[in-house]
Write a structure and sequence with these properties.
The chain has about 260 residues and is α/β, with parallel strands linked by helices. The chain has nine helices and eleven strands. It has two domains: about 60 residues, no CATH class; about 170 residues, Vaccinia Virus protein VP39 (Rossmann fold). Helix 6 crosses helix 7. The longest helix has 16 residues. The N terminus is likely disordered.
Length: about 260
C-alpha cells in the first residue's frame, strides 16, 4: 500500500489517501515519488511512472509548474506545453494559440479591467491564461471537455491568476450578453476533421459544425455596436454581414472584426 498525505487546494484533497499498490503489477522498476514541502503544505508530486496504477491519475491530476517554466510561461510556447499534464500535451501546434498571436489578439481586444473577453472553445486555457498574465482584462473560457477545463483551472491556481475563469459547458448554453469582446480560434473544426483531433470524443458531424457556428454568429449579431471579435485561422466563419474587418496580422490568419 502507498499512503499519500496532502492538504492542497489544487488537488482538492485533504488528509491521507491510500492507494493499493502491487510491485508485481507495477513491474520491477515500480513507481518513484518525491515529496517536498511547499507553500501549499505538503504536495505529492509524481516524478516518474514506469507503469502507472489506474488510481494515480486521481491522486496527482496535474504537473507542478517548475520555477523556470513559470517565469517563461507567458512568453514561451514550450514552457506552457511543459506545464500541462502529459495526457493533454502534444496538441499545441493544431489546437492551442501561439503566445505571439495571443499577445497581438489581446492588444486588439483591450487590456482594461472592464473588458470581459470570452474565449469560445478554450481548451486547456492557454489564450485566457496568457492573456490574464499580460493584462488587467478578465478572460473567461468555455470548453466542453471537462478534463481540459480542470487542467486550465489547475494552471490558473498554480499561476495565482484572479482575472481568468473557466466554464465547463456547451457554447449553446452561454449568453453572449455577459461579455464585451470575443476570441474565436476555429473551435468546431474537429467536427469536420478526419484526423488531428484532441481525442476520439468528437466524431465527424457536418451538421453539428454548422449548428455551433450558426449559434455563435447569431449571438454575435445581437451584440452592441463596437463589440470586438478576433478570429484566428477561421476562414469559414463569416460574420461580414454585421462586422467590419479592421485589421489583419500573421499573413491574414489573425483578424480583428468590429460590430458596425
Amino acid at each position: 500500500m502507498i499512503v499519500a498525505y496532502t492538504g492542497s487546494p489544487i488537488l482538492g484533497l485533504r488528509g491521507s489517501i491510500t492507494v493499493p499498490f502491487s510491485p508485481q503489477k507495477a513491474g520491477p522498476k515500480g513507481l518513484a515519488f518525491f515529496v517536498r514541502e511547499s507553500w501549499m503544505r505538503t504536495l505529492v508530486r509524481l516524478v516518474e511512472v514506469r507503469r502507472k496504477h489506474p488510481l494515480i491519475e486521481l491522486i496527482v491530476p496535474f504537473l507542478l509548474v517548475n520555477k523556470e517554466d513559470k517565469s517563461k510561461i507567458n512568453r514561451d510556447d514550450n514552457a506552457f506545453e511543459n506545464a500541462l499534464r502529459k495526457s493533454v500535451q502534444g496538441h499545441s501546434y493544431i489546437h492551442w494559440t501561439p503566445v505571439e498571436v495571443i499577445m497581438a489578439a489581446v492588444d486588439w481586444l483591450g487590456t482594461e479591467s472592464s473588458n470581459n473577453i470570452l474565449d469560445i472553445g478554450s481548451g486547456v486555457g492557454k489564450f485566457c491564461l496568457i492573456g490574464a498574465m499580460n493584462s488587467r482584462a478578465h478572460f473567461i473560457g468555455v470548453e466542453t471537455r471537462e478534463d481540459l477545463v480542470e487542467q486550465a483551472i489547475d494552471l490558473k491556481k498554480e499561476l495565482k491568476l484572479s482575472n481568468a475563469n473557466f466554464i465547463h459547458s456547451d457554447i449553446i448554453n452561454i449568453d453572449f450578453k455577459d461579455y464585451t469582446s470575443f476570441y474565436f480560434y476555429n473551435p468546431f473544426c474537429e467536427y469536420m476533421a478526419l484526423s488531428g483531433g484532441i481525442d476520439d470524443r468528437i466524431k465527424f458531424d457536418e451538421e453539428a459544425f454548422y449548428k455551433y457556428q450558426d449559434y455563435v454568429a447569431e449571438q454575435l449579431k445581437k451584440t452592441p455596436k463596437g463589440t470586438k471579435l478576433v478570429k484566428y485561422c477561421s476562414p469559414d466563419f463569416d460574420i461580414s454581414t454585421n462586422f467590419d474587418l479592421t485589421d489583419m496580422y500573421f499573413e491574414g490568419q489573425l483578424q480583428l472584426w468590429i460590430r458596425r
